[in-house]
Structures are given as C-alpha cells and as structure tokens.
Amino acid sequence: MTTINEVLKSIQNMSTEELLSINKALCATIKLRNAMKQIAAGSEFKVGDKVQFNQKRGGTAEIEITGFNRARTSAKGFESGNKMRTWTVSCNLLTKAAS
C-alpha cells in the first residue's frame, strides 16, 4: 500500500498532463461518493414525512416531503410570516422532525 507521503513526493515529478488526469479522477471519485451519500440519506425518508433542515439565512425549517428525485427531495412548508413555500433540498441535509 502506498502512503500519502509517497504519493505527495511522486506528484512533484509529474507532468501537467498527468496532474490534470489525476485531478479529473479525484474529482469524479469525490462526486460519486457525495452522490452515494445523498442517495443513502434519501432512503431514510418517504413522501409525507415531516423533516427539518437548517436554512442558509439561519433558523430551522420544518417541512413535509412531497417528492423525490435521485438525491434531492421536494418539500413544502411554512416560511416565517406563514407563507407557504416549496424547497428542493439535498437529502443529506434533512433530519426527521420531532413528532
């Protein structure tokens, strides 16, 4: 097994083309792992479940799942001010809401 230090040392001797090729492979691997995490997280929920997530602007939104695609979910809930809103949220950002 090659250690991380050996990999870092060998990178110093690689051409730009080789480094770009490695970068492309690493990005694809990270993207695949993230997609698998999202799909696994989505399998925990079903349509009609009450869930919550932390909003970008602060605060927690409690919403009800209305649909899924591969790694994201659509959900409806009330925003502050009692305004109904639809969100599209990554499944790995959701947690079950307290009943």
Describe the protein:
This protein is α+β, with helices and mostly antiparallel strands and 99 residues long. It has a single domain, classed as SH3 type barrels (Roll). 35% of the residues lie in helices and 32% in strands. It is built from two helices and five strands; from the N terminus they run H-H-E-E-E-E-E. The protein has a five-stranded antiparallel beta sheet with strand order 4-3-2-1-5. Strand 2 and strand 3 form a beta hairpin. The longest helix is centred in the first third of the chain and has 27 residues. The chain is elongated. The protein starts with a helix and ends with a strand. The model has no long low-confidence stretch (mean pLDDT 85).
For the sheet with most strands, the description reads:
5 strands, antiparallel
CATH class: Mainly Beta
- Number of helical elements: 2
In spatial order, strands of the major sheet run 4-3-2-1-5
In the predicted model, the low-confidence regions spanning at least 5 consecutive residues are none
Strand content bin: 25-35%
Number of strands: 5
List the secondary-structure elements in sequence, H or E.
HHEEEEE
Helix content: 25-40%
Average of the residue pLDDT scores: 85
* End-to-end C-alpha gap: 48 Å
Which outline best applies? elongated
**What would the CATH topology be?**
SH3 type barrels
* Category by helix and strand content: alpha+beta
Give the key terms.
99 residues; 5 strands; alpha+beta; SH3 type barrels; single chain
Topology:
Layout: H1 4-11, H2 16-42, E1 50-54, E2 60-68, E3 72-79, E4 83-90, E5 95-96
Antiparallel strand pairs: 1-2, 1-5, 2-3, 3-4
